[in-house]
Fold these 3 entries.
Entry 1:
Amino acid sequence: MRTYEVAFIAVPTLTSEALDAFIAQMQSVVEGKNGKVVKVDNWGKKPLAYRIKRFRDGYYVILTLLADGAIIAELERRFRVADHVIRFLSVRVDEDLKRSEKMKIARQRKSVSRPAPAPQPASEYEAVPPAAPIG
Amino acid sequence: MPGPKRFSVKRKRVCKFCAEKISYIDFKDGKLLSHFIPERGKILPRRISGVCSVHQRQLSQAIKRARHMAILPFVAD
């Protein structure tokens, strides 16, 4: 099971019920094939940086999924067929997130081994005080 | 080499992403990415932005994805 981020832009002429129905439909596609929808991020109507098919804004929706390639292929097929989806992009992020986690842990370990001279930037991971032993 | 002199001494040598310990550059973060595409919308070269090579590759990929998703423009005026 890999982690994907699927982002799509829907036409601004949709009603919010139609949009929610479409999102629910996509969710059921994922769940039906043993995927899992981790997060649904609806940015609402936002202006586009350039005109796409005469539209100047659109509804941005980002889905974070645990799925495999077949599910993503099916989602993309539906996006392509749907009249009201004007752009989509799916990105596989599990490798990137794993790498980012490893770097954070390595940084944490480095800062524990030598006395921390400078204050660490605020982030949810650096909430652990530097004096705490790790591993 | 003939050409206009550059104020390269004034340029920061610190990579902004390394300094803030950001390891994943998200294409959805328009505000962060917009610092790296000046007026015309072109991606800033490393020697001007001071970004390290690892992050420049990630940044450039994130900017191209953001352009595809109309978060950033291809050409700006």
Entry 2:
Amino acid sequence: MSLDLPLVFTVLMGVAILAYTVLDGYDLGVGMLMPAGDAREQDLMVASIGPFWDANETWLVLGVGLLLVAFPAAHGVILGALYLPVAAMLIGLMLRGAAFEFRVKALGWHRELWNWLFWFGSFLAALAQGLMLGRTITGYAGGFGYWLFALVVAGGLCGGYVLLGATWLVLRTEGELQRKAIVWARWGLAWVALGVALVSLGTPLASETVRDKWFDFPRTLGLMALPLATLASGAWVSLELGRSDWKPFAGAVAIFALAFAGLAYSLYPYLVMDRMTIWQAAADPSSLRVVLVGALIVLPFIVAYTVFSYRVFRGKARAGLYEH
Amino acid sequence: MDASDALHLARAQFGLNIGFHILFPSITIGLAWLLVYFRVRYARSGDPAWLATYKLWTRIFALTFAMGVVTGIVMSFQFGTNWPGFMNRVGNVAGPLLAFEVLTAFFLEATFLGVMLFGMERVPGWVHVTSAVLVAFGTTVSAFWILALNSWMQTPAGEAHTPAGALVAGDWLAVIFNPSFPYRFVHMLLASGLTAAFLVAGLSAWRLLKSGGDAAARGTLRTGVLIAAVLAPLQIVAGDMHGLNTLEHQPEKIAAIEAIWHGGKGVPLELFAIPNQKTHSNDYSIAIPKGASLILRHDPDGALEGLDAFGDDIPPVAPVFFAFRIMVGAGFAMLALAWLGAWKTRRGAAAPRWLLWTFAGATFIGWVATLAGWIVTEMGRQPWLVTGILRTRDALGAVPDAALGASLTGYVLTYGLMLLAYIVVLTHLAGAGSGESR
């Protein structure tokens, strides 16, 4: 029996990217919400993501690592085409990572500066990731319209991260901050609804390939399950905000997973839209097999100790959690 | 701008990133094990002074680790943005090594660092100690994989070709344990140990200068000094063995290190010179006759290959020549300083202020040696990216110069800010007098 290794690695890479967007998504979202909280709340917000953000960002390294390992031919094309947004994202991630550590050790206007850089870095990274996504959907086509489309996608992704961040805070905080987070989450939800609607309408317009894949009767009927489920998740988040601590976050994750599935369906089997399929870009089977065996052995451990870490730090964030 | 400008920009950018990145792992690999030591001392004794020591250095570690993580993410992307030809040509070998680093090391260290930093009151003591061990283990495993890849790029082994001509790994053990790997791995681990030891000694000295009779700082000064006193001579031996290994596998690098333009018997040792890449000779040379042959062949009339044996495939000689001397100079300075410090603080004696100032001044001496060493080994490999397999210029991507230039500016500004803040915060933390203060 022969395994379709490029397909297996596409799934693995997809899982890594989805895990990244959800996990780093909530901490980038918390970063983007920083200016909305007062000084005490900001400390709590940062404390709620403190034990997790390092590991969350590792999923990004795994995602790009799998791209690099499994699809060397596409890797250069994609990262070359995304050169500037990637550079912007990296600078954003560095600024917020540094700010995260520096802000707790600074006082006065220094602290304010790092708070601002934490917000700015989170926002820059989220915006750049959205641009990367938007550019990828259209196969890096040039022209004003395509960039405008990428900007709309970027706006939508920022909204998604804000929703994740706000619902994360609903889950991990209590009292006044939690009440504020519920309001932020409602704004984030409206923002996401607009973003998803615009991207869903814009993608078939921007790409003929996507149009053909979605509007192909009778397959279209089955595919309608995706937008309907997304809509239902959104409604669920809206209903549960203020009633449940964890359901809004779960709903936000569901929205991300569904939107991701839609995008993955739009792109598949291309890695570079209309130009390079996963099989054309794949590395030699011998090295893929080595990585696959390694990944299958190690990933259960990674999942196990990640679950362990979330169990250790379950419950509400407290002031002073970041005293280390 | 022509192709060589783009090459220079891409190399400047990658060199800047990798040079900035290595500053932080070079501390964390060694410091992580020191933290295990501090943590175990506290677990055994219950002495709050050890706890304060552990907490202070954990905060410094967390800061350094975060800087390493975020600058490391940059590197993972720049393989593709700056050197797409690298993955196209040798991705079947390099890819799995990088993937194993992410899978076996990055998640491990990042996750358990969270437990280590925030979980002391939430998990049993033995779980917390285990977390510290796993973080340290993760940093060392990470170094293992990345140095396996780097060493393979220096001295490739174990590769094979598919019928279609693609380069693949024929024998993974031969790839990983390639000829220069054991030497480079040991050399880097010792370098990190020394860098961390001088950081600990230097910041402890700074603390003693600022706040006087702090027993914990006296303890950590002594710890750092003793570790350095043991590691420095080991590093000199390991470095010498690494050099002889390089002579065997990359003679052109040794020729550049010693600025030997013309090979032959009884080659002189250049004590001082300004290597001239245009005339293929040394300006202002002061040399010991037959010295290089004596050192490298242990025979005054021994034969050595010169750069002339390698045609155009030679590295830029002057940077390699000078960086090597800086590295060796820093290495011997560390040895002298560590032994002096160990002698002056023997049997609990308090270090005199001039010695404290010297150690405070030498806080980052490990960085100097590490960076110089990396310049020697990486520039000494040029014009090859993978020796004998892929030239650096053939791996270059098609990114416009303007994009390279703009992003380079962004990186320089970001790194400048981060480095400044890092050093300010470190000295502030160390000078603050007590581990509990914010």
Entry 3:
Amino acid sequence: MNWQTKFFLLFVIACLGMNACVEPFDPKLNSDTRRLVIESQLTTKLDYQYVYLTYDAPYNSDASVFKDYVADAKVTLKDNLGNEYAFFDDPSQNNSVKLPRGYNYRSVDKIQLVVGRTYQLFVETFDKKKYESTPEKVVGVPKIEKVNVVFNEIIPPAYLKTERGEFRVSVNVKDTPGEKNYYKWDWYNVKKIDWCREYTVANAAGTTSYVQPCCQDCYEKVVCTNCLELENDRLIDGNSFNRSLTKVPYDNTNNYYLVINQYSINENAYKFWNTVKEQSKASGGLFDPTPKSIRGNFKNTNNAAEEVLGYFTVSDVHEEIVIIDRNLASPKPFYTESYQPPWWIQLPASQCFACNESFTRSKFAPKGWK
Amino acid sequence: MNKFWLVLFVILPICTFAQSRVTIKGTITQANTNTPINGANILIPQTGYGTTTDSLGNYEMTILKGSFLIKITHQGYFSKNFQLDATKNATQNFTLDEKVNDLAEVEVSAKSANQNVKSLTTGVSSLNYKALKKLPTLLGEVDIIKSLFTLPGVTTVGEGASGFNVRGGNIDQNLILLEEAPIFNSSHLMGFFSVFNPDAFRDFNFYRGGVPAQFGGRVSSVLSVNLKDANASKFSINGGVGTISSRLFIESPIIKDKLSFFVAGRISYVDQVVNLFKIKRLSGSKANFYDITAKVEYKPTKKDRISVSAFIGNDNFKLAKDTISTIDENSDARYHWTSRNLSTSWSHYFGPKFTLKTHGIFANYDVDIINTDSASAFTLSSSIAYKSLKSVLIFTPNEKHEAEIGVQVNSYLIKPGSLLPTLETSNKNPALLPDERALESAVFVNDKIKINSKFDMGIGLRFALYQALGSGKVYNYEANQPRSTLSLTDSTMFQKGDVIQQYSSIEPRISFNYSINANSSIKASANRMSQFINLLSNTTAALPSDRWKISDVYTKPQYSNQFSIGYFRNSKDKTYELSAELFYKQLFNAIDYKDGETLILNPKPETVILQGDGFAYGAELFIKKNLGVFTGWLSYTYSQTLIKIVGDSPEETINNGNYFPPIFNRPHSFNAVGSYQASKTVSFSGNLNFTSGRAITYPASKLFLSGSFLPYYNSRNQSQIPNYFRIDLSMNIETHPYRTKGYRSNWNFSLYNILFRRNAYSVFLRQQTPFNIYDSRVKIYKLSVLGSIIPSLTYNFKF
């Protein structure tokens, strides 16, 4: 090895040395108290509305927040005109979280909030502890002016079997001038499913999985967890603005049915959700802000010192449905068909499983399905 | 508390006694060039009495009649001893020979070894360039700020963080002066380099305990960095070419013995080097800087010296999108910052008793964040401009007193932020925050009194008057409500020049030195300091773009009272010196922030800033070997800082109103620095650093919200990240060790972090699989800024 080569190698090491590195670490964190977590976002859309109750769990542990349920709680919504709406414990209706009881509280009737009214949420747990949110006022939200879908081609190296593009989705919104506006977006995908149940049986060979076909047409709502965008008009008051939201994968040629909800929220809710968003992506980097408490807007009516977590958000909502045509002439996606389970675990049509109506599943095609 | 100090100051008697004495004066110059030597020590070891030469090489001392041995020392020169028969007033000139490569005696201190015991104040460190050169270097350069980290009482938040923390103080609480002009950001490349060019640097004084009254405006420490004297007698060039940065220094006389100058430049090209290797994950990163330091000195007469020095530093920094950058909107942003400093000074030597030094200072710090993303393109600019006039009269009536009397006026102009959309397609509205103006005036007096052969004391008093000036708008808020946009009622307008708010501060500075014997002493000091401008920063590491804020109606000035006591001892032959110090510091109006609030472009920062009181205490141990082929030091510090912020509402209270440590709290810090001169040609040096992990807030629990698991935090900074441990080595090879003139050069090879240790900069949390909500285990990671060893190679030359 001549000295030039040695120097070159040394130099490469020096440059790599400037790279940050990240590795697992266990600070052994424990928790000695259990705190109630209440989450609810109620909107002006006439529908069944939900309140979710859980307890927190020690941080750096395998303990699940779904181990102890908050069953038999009394959940009530009140508005400033004196109207009261009851919620009841609705087990197993939410297929995204399969819980027996004590998580999923649904409004007894389909309800809708009214812009300009103030609402307050009350929760009484089975051990007679009473909790209440701060009163929250519903403010109006402008409609989405336009949804933009732009295909962005990705050229992977020839040896990589990865997606060859993505559809970038953004919205155009005209902000209302002269007032403080805070926006929140979430979105979900609805797809038609062929297989309605997957189950596993134990046997001599270990376990074997089976998938059962649906007995009828079945549509599933795929909620994107952790997908949440926020905006405030502090710097863009009264302007039209473009907000990019999500990227739809180009993994087959079927239409992609996307539902975007644009919500109005108030200043404190914005701060709360912004904290949640920052918290979930803090990387420990040089520019991370100091951690923030995401305590929320609930308190124990009789014990102000008790830490109650979660947030009660009220929103006006504007919903926009976009059907993205993914059947492009060129490039073609790497996989042209939707994913199918291996044939040897597929059960015949005679052993079909019913498409049960639920929070995420329906026999009925959503509006405008094609 | 103020009254107590005032009384103490006034009633302390000043006594002098007339004895039979003679006055000896003269000039000390360099042997071959006749250049006056500034800061040479003239010491009579028999009596312990001594003095120091001024910038023109002049000294004067009044001593008892008799025959004495005089010892003349200076870090950069061979020591000399003279026998002096002092029977009548006399002029006695001396010359010293420059140390080119001194094998026998490598002193690490800029002052004589006896300074440890004889100097008046606690918590003072001085180092000069030759001592710094013996330290192992990061990225091939001598670094003043990094050398501070090896001294007791100084820590940093972590590698890659700007600034430093002294005895429980935040980074903006250090007054950093380059030739009297303040430096608002002492870092290049986010802390990997400091702004001080090693070629242009002469020495620094770092005060973390007893701070003389001529310094004020910060509550924690003073780092006063002096440039080399521009007193070249011939044209010379030196420089260095390295793998990460290169330097060039040129000095020359213009009119011999009257007018001379030097210019020192430095340029770094890390990003260019990285691009050469096409490392994909770093493409798009920018990391480069340059700086120029220059000085011109004019000596119109033997008694006058006029100097003008200037500094310009320019940085560009942008992290590639997929590295550790996480600011979502600004992940594509480039940071560009520029410091411009100009100091002019005039020293006039009226005679042995009076010298007058006058400084005119201008400093400016500009930062731009430039985002070029078409949908949100903007430039966000902010700046701070500082102008100052300072005049100090040094009065030495007799050998018992050395007094300084001075006046200083500083003006501040802060442009806290302006945002301009830079493309038609940008969705940003322009925004402009109003300018902030302030005037800080101070008068000060300081006297070093030699009460008797055992007892010295220094008393000083500084009176500062601070005025926040118009034009400006002060927002008013509902009483008994947390200050927020929701409790805003109206505003009061102030015209240009109106005094919006005024604060004053009386700051006594007292120090004592009791000599137990010729080799040991006990020292104590007490001082009060105030601070009227603050750096607002709520991220882990300070950003170059963090906002400076003047004290105003809502943001009160910060104050500190510091008490320290120390025991200082030298071995008989001065080979070893030891010091042990204790300090206790009270902090008033320390700044913290409400959770989750934005500081940048916030027109009402008072709705975010919270203030509270706290305290810091600690013990510092320092052992140094000054002489021999092996030199170095060990330092250990134990310290704790606690702050309490209790507001009227939970929103304005941190950590439920209990004391909490600030993020930079690192209780234990141990440093070992050694240098071994193996031969005339080769020397080795090493550095070991152990520091306990900084404070961090870990989650109390996890909760399920909006489809993901989130950490819940309920108390501030109650845990620590893993401890920090690092060893560095460097080797220096002189190519022409016996040459004293002509072309000389050396190779410096250094290894930073030889243990390949991945020291934690921070610890962060990630949920394992966002879609599998049943598997709720959360992964915790540690981030290390430096992932491995960093070698560097530099070739330095001089001719």
